[in-house]
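QA checklist item 7 of 12: single-chain prediction sanity check.
[x] sequence parsed
[x] length recorded as 607
[x] structure emitted
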Amino acid sequence: MTLFDHLPLDFHKLPEETILHIVSELQLLNLAEEKARKTECAAASYARDLTRPRANAKYKDLLTFCQLSKKCRRIGQEVLVRHPDLTEGGKAATQVLRLLRLLLFDNQGLATKVRELKLDLTVDWRDKETVASMLEQNPTLWGEIVKRAALVHPALVDLWEAEWDEAAREEIPEPRGHEAVDEEIPEPGDEEPRMGRFEGTKAVQALILHTTNLEKLDIADSQFQSKSLRDDVSLVLFVAWELKALKTLVLRSRLGSSDLISAFLEHPEVILLPRLKTLDLRIQEWVGHSSLVPLLVQNAGAEPWKVESLILRGWVGPEALALLLRRFEALKSLKIVVDVHERFVPMEMDEGEFALQFDMLWEAMLAVEHTLESFEFVVKRRRTKYPILFPPVLNRMEKLKVFKISGAVLFRRPFNPVSGLVEEGVVAVDSFLPPNLEHFEYAPDPISLGQIVDLCWVTAIIPRPAAGAMREITACFKQLLQILHQARPSIQSIVIPWSWYSPTDFVEIEAQLRQHGVKLLRKSKKEEMEQIRKAYEDKYLAWRPDLMEQLALYGGVEDNYHLSGELQKRDRNRDAEWEERESRVDAQGLGAELVKLRLEERDKGTQ
């Protein structure tokens, strides 16, 4: 049964606006379900037993719905183009051109319906032939693209014509990891130019120019090195200035944090768009952040940015971060997600220096202390032995109302007067929590809290002094939990780890806090299991049965469903091994009996 089977039987009699709303909501549920299944299949160690979802699985039900009638086709097409993901299947440029063809020739009215675009600037080496054949079959497509682009952004056409000749002469190297393809390299004078990054980027630019009602733009460059990344992002941001309705900008890359930030520093018009509220930078490995400092200093006098929400997924360094935050004059929400993993530590510093960088990070946040209302700090992985300092500057942020800490975070005792966090109990609240706090989440994963112990890595992950400090800090929070409403009358909700209290104690404390208008919540075991899997990585869990069994004992079968199959298989293997062992014992016993009988028969024969 699909999600669209929940439609009423006579739904076709409803007004189109009502059907459009229903189908849109069902498709959003379908996308969320497919994303969860894809994440589960990609991340879990048990994924070898699962069938990976197809690239177009998220649109399967919607495509079926479009075949019911002409009315459903019109509605389905509009829903389809609202949130298109053009990064699936490894053919990003092909999908961009197909969507352009739909918007230019098949149904021009759909261009204003596009609300979100997820694009990949990488042109796969297998994708260029498909793009070339599409342009051969429809030779007017590119001409129409250039014609429409000239009406919106005239300067872009001259730029394209200048770069087209240059791109036609460039040789595109074969990608790493694939065998070289034997093909004739055309000479510069050949009529047919080689398809590559140039065509992919220009197609993306054209698509952006044709979807001026975009509210969210998500750009990824997953394979190119930093130089290409900077060029590609700069070219895309050059035309993104036309998106007057843009509210969210997401930039993704595996490498080149400095080039990514430099790209939009060179085109600050995008950050100054009137409706832009959220900037999300997602970089897997942050390198070269020191080169950002002179660039940020050089642009310090530029017009301030009005973005209200900033998400940094990676590490940019405290000095560069402080300069970056000073560019925001109205930043209300800051979320920092980092990988504290030994392979993510910059090569120029050891782990101790990297840990001290976090101490400086909190000082960098003072650049937005007068505007910040929400701060979330998430540690995705921890495989280094150096803990970090609990943020000591939050008590200076009077507007900060939401404070969240989660993941594989590991704190150490502060070295300043904030040491009262452990010794002074209630008095310490004024030292480390914002004065007007309303929502507080303190939810380290069970590894940091010591609920799950890896005997092979215990000294590398959580050394004994750090583990003791973490236990003391956690115990302090548990003591402050019941009287936090007195120290912070503004508090409205608190989120804690699952393992803090038994069900009976939790119900009792939750009732006490509810009398004071405070809602007490705790994270589910399923969420904590996901955090553990990210912290340890599933490939590591696959060959550690002791950890698997600890997780099962902690989470239970229902909440730990993704590990129950693996554990059941191990139980079956144990049963099979035990049966084999018993059969060997029985065989040995039976063999002894047969030998005894033969000896007795021989003795009788000799007599």
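[x] summary fact logged: Residues 42-53, 167-198, 415-423, 557-561 have pLDDT under 50 and may be disordered.
[ ] second reviewer sign-off
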